[in-house]
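hey
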């Protein structure tokens, strides 16, 4: 089987089709974001949450059906980053999110990708920590809450749930994990270099 035929088979298996489908949910989320319309914001959040949930589904199906592929390993984290960064950048545009948070998170991702490429070229294996995974979870939950934006009354209570404040809390947690996981990854790369030098 040629490399092209292998790629086509990988692209069109069910888990990878779901992953690609997540990318097509990004434009509706961006289009619906409106700092003055609670209904549009709620729909944007629900679609974003659905896209985030599909990430769990495609990973589960890939493992269960033995369809973990090179294409999937590339496109799945790419979809995660495109979803998160697209939404966050547009939230900055409409003044619902500080720009510096996006700058730090984007810078961290570029930095980690650079280290991974150098490590791969040198044959260094760096174990993935839990910090990066938790960072992604907190980031996606935070974005969902910030997209809702407005406070809503809790069912059966007079208490208001401030979605924007809760979302920012999750994003600050994601930011802290983002930085700490980058530090951990850097030390892992350093240790790998030292091990090779012995």
């Amino acid at each position: 089987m040629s490399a092209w035929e292998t790629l086509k088979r990988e692209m069109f298996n069910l888990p990878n089709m779901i992953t690609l489908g997540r990318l097509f949910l990004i434009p509706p989320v961006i289009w619906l974001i409106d700092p003055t319309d609670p209904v549009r914001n709620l729909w944007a959040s629900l679609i974003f949450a659905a896209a985030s949930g599909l990430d769990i589904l495609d990973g589960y199906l890939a493992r269960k059906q033995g369809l973990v592929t090179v294409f999937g390993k590339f496109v799945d984290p790419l979809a995660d980053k495109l979803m998160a960064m697209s939404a966050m950048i547009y939230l900055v545009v409409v003044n619902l999110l500080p720009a510096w948070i996006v700058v730090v998170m984007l810078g961290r991702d570029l930095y980690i990708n650079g280290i991974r490429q150098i490590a791969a070229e040198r044959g260094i294996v760096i174990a993935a920590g839990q910090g990066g995974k938790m960072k992604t979870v907190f980031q996606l939950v935070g974005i969902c809450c910030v997209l809702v934006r407005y406070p809503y009354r809790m069912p059966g209570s007079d208490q208001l749930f401030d979605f924007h404040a809760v979302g920012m809390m999750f994003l600050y947690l994601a930011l802290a994990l983002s930085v700490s996981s980058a530090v951990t990854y850097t030390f892992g790369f350093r240790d790998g270099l030292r091990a090779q030098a012995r």
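DSSP finds eight helices and two strands in the chain. Residues 163-197 form the longest helix (35 residues).
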